[in-house]
Specification:
- This protein has six helices and 41 strands.
- By secondary structure, the protein is mainly beta.
- The strands form eleven sheets. The protein has a five-stranded antiparallel sheet with strand order 21-20-19-18-36. Strands 1-32-31-30 form a four-stranded antiparallel sheet, with no helix packed on it. A four-stranded antiparallel sheet has the order 2-3-6-7.
- β34 and β35 form a beta hairpin.
- The radius of gyration is 23 Å and the shape is globular.
Length: about 625
């Protein structure tokens, strides 16, 4: 991306220098670290479990040989004006005292340290309150002999007590496992028994915790025949053939190990200073490593998962991080969108016969607006312009536009970031988790993004970065960080985002995960007279989680469309309910649900400001306030 300035060579030199000094000139792309990496002596890692440890903030070593950038400003744009916004979020002091740890204190400067972990919001015990699950991360050997041993920290499950306090129930729930260095938290009721199960992804394997329905989980990855020795971050459950049984898509990242750990150098160089330091080790670019194949797994008649990737046409290796399963082309079956890091993104379009065709370039969602592959991480799908067509949003690396792909119909998309206000902030950010959500209940979807750099010596940026809050104003986005709350004007090494209604008051709250920093729970305190409606859909005979359902809410003045998606964000899972905001002067007329099996169901005149449960083929509603 070109620097955002033009020079008039008629002006005086001092004025030119002042103008230049006020700008941030950005380095380009994900491979800004190393033109020619040097291979170090190969070492073969041996897996080892870490001793059970807490990831509480008090236990994190604060003596890392790295800067602590929690209060750094990220760029001169911190002083740029922003429009006033009514959006408000309060950081919850009583939130979980837990931090993802990446083991960076060992000084190995590995690729695995960069990815961080996710957060899942789900009601694990069916008590009506959304609970919080956070992945733990990992570490490395303590001495030179064991330096290349990669081990894990267990996840943490916090039960929502119903009063915005949370209790750590990790051990009694039976999920205190540290089998590998963990990243993703994916929750879904994969066996249609009414209890939400849990998948943990990471470097070295996959864990599947089956919910026993009594507040405990059983780890069943081996019984389900999950692949081992893989590196996965993003995953999603969805019913690709509408038979009522969910399939699992597992994206893999890159072929990195300590046996393939090149010495890459950092560049501390700016346009003005031309200072350069090439002797400091820094994080390598994903471009230096080969991609790995993804998995599409399907249950067989014995209740185990089999790999159907090849027969389904999932035949390209990528560098996958984000996964979304949704009906992107609105033809009645689930498609799969995968964000890849430094190679083209994938859009696996469901052909309706059990096979997929990769169509990202054809549909316009594989590259940026100049035809280049981005360093893509996070993904979500929404309808930002309220035309009933699903749009896609992708977070990318520094000096790459975050990509808003507008659906223009017939499964074609247009890159509209520039026209939609996403150049209202500079490209210093490295984006990760993201969420389309109607934070102010005005009917359109706002955007939230977690940011944080991967490099130790980033050019013209800091490692910790502001998150971004974007308010949707007439189908254009405006950055409104300074109005929204203190969290959005402090820097973090953000990674995962999940949204949900933690206090059941009808508006959406947020949970952010960070690297080596306590997670943040943000309670929505936006004050207005707008209304809301939340829906919990239960499929039967469709999959019970109703993944793939399309819900249309019609008022006397407009309509809104939402889908129940598999995956999205980055390494995270949102509240499974569907949320609508309704402007104060509008009256809800109907809800139309197109279930995954194609049947339709209409609910007339549902009451606003209520939480509704809708069971497929059952006309009545169960209402809870």
């Amino acid at each position: 991306m070109v620097p955002r300035f033009s020079a008039n060579f008629q002006i005086a030199m001092p004025a030119l220098l002042v103008s230049l000094m006020s700008l941030v000139i950005l380095t380009a792309g994900c491979d800004s670290n190393n033109p020619s990496p040097t291979q170090i002596e190969p070492k073969t890692p041996s897996p080892s479990n870490a001793t059970q440890e807490t990831n509480s903030v008090s236990s994190i070593d604060q003596t890392f040989n790295r800067p602590n950038p929690s209060s750094e400003l990220i760029s001169p744009e911190d002083n740029l004006p922003e429009p006033e916004s009514n959006l408000r979020f309060r950081t919850l002091d009583s939130g979980p005292d837990f931090a993802y740890k990446n083991g960076e204190e060992a000084g190995h400067v590995t690729m695995v340290e960069t990815l961080g972990g996710g957060v899942a919001l789900f009601d694990y015990n069916n008590d009506g309150h959304e609970d919080i699950l956070l992945t733990g991360g990992g570490t490395f050997g303590d001495d030179k002999k064991e330096a290349t041993q990669i081990s894990g920290y267990p996840p943490a499950l916090y039960q929502n007590n119903g009063d915005l306090t949370f209790t750590n129930v990790t051990q009694p729930a039976g999920i205190d496992r540290d089998d590998f260095y963990s990243h993703g938290a994916i929750t879904q009721d994969y066996d249609n028994d009414g209890f939400t199960d849990l998948v943990i992804t990471g470097y070295g394997g996959v864990l599947v915790f089956h919910n026993n329905g009594d507040g405990t989980f059983e780890q069943v990855a081996e019984q389900l025949n999950l692949p081992t020795n893989i590196w996965s971050v993003g995953a999603a459950w969805g019913d690709i053939d509408n038979d009522g049984i969910l399939e699992l898509y597992l994206a893999q990242y890159i072929d990195w190990s300590f046996a393939n750990h090149p010495f890459c150098t950092g560049r501390d160089q700016s346009f003005l200073s031309q200072k350069k330091a090439d002797d400091r080790r820094d994080i390598c670019s994903p471009r230096d490593f080969a991609p790995l194949p993804d998995f599409l797994l399907k249950f067989n008649e014995h209740g185990t998962l089999i790999d159907i990737s090849e027969q389904a046409g999932i035949n390209k290796a990528g560098k996958g991080l984000g996964v979304l399963m949704a009906d992107v082309d609105l033809d009645g079956d689930l498609d799969i969108y995968v964000t890849n890091d430094t190679v083209a993104n994938f859009l696996w379009t469901n052909q309706g016969d059990g096979t997929f065709r990769e169509t990202a370039a054809l549909c316009g969602v594989g590259f940026d607006n100049t035809g280049n592959a981005d360093g893509s991480m996070g993904i979500d799908m929404g309808d930002f312009n309220m035309d009933g067509l699903p749009d896609l949003f992708v977070t990318n690396f520094q000096n790459e536009q975050f990509a808003l792909y507008k659906n223009i119909g017939n499964a074609l998309f247009q890159h509209v970031s520039t026209a939609s206000g996403l150049l209202s902030f500079q490209s210093v950010y490295v984006g990760w988790g993201t969420a389309f959500m109607d934070a102010d209940r005005d009917g359109d979807e706002d955007l939230f993004i977690a940011n944080g750099h991967v490099n130790l010596y980033p050019s013209d940026a800091t490692i910790a970065q502001w998150p971004i809050a974007l308010e949707n104003i007439d189908s254009r986005y405006a950055k409104v960080n300074k109005s929204v709350g203190d969290y959005f004007t402090t820097a973090h090494k953000g990674r995962g985002i999940a949204y949900g209604d933690l206090d059941n008051d009808g508006d959406l709250d947020l949970v952010y995960s960070h690297i080596n920093e306590r997670c943040s729970v943000l309670i929505n305190e936006t004050a207005n007279e707008n209304q809301w409606l939340s829906l919990q859909l239960i499929g039967n005979p469709s999959n019970r989680a109703a993944v793939g359902s399309v819900v249309t809410l019609t008022t006397d003045k407009q309509f809104q469309v939402r889908q129940i998606k598999g995956g999205s964000s980055y390494a995270s899972t949102n509240d499974s309910r569907v949320f609508f905001g309704i402007p104060q002067n509008q009256i809800i007329q109907s809800i139309l649900i197109r279930w995954p099996d194609g049947t339709e169901q209409t609910v007339q005149s549902p009451q606003a400001n209520t939480a509704q449960t809708i069971i497929q083929s059952t006309p009545s509603l169960s209402t809870s306030l």
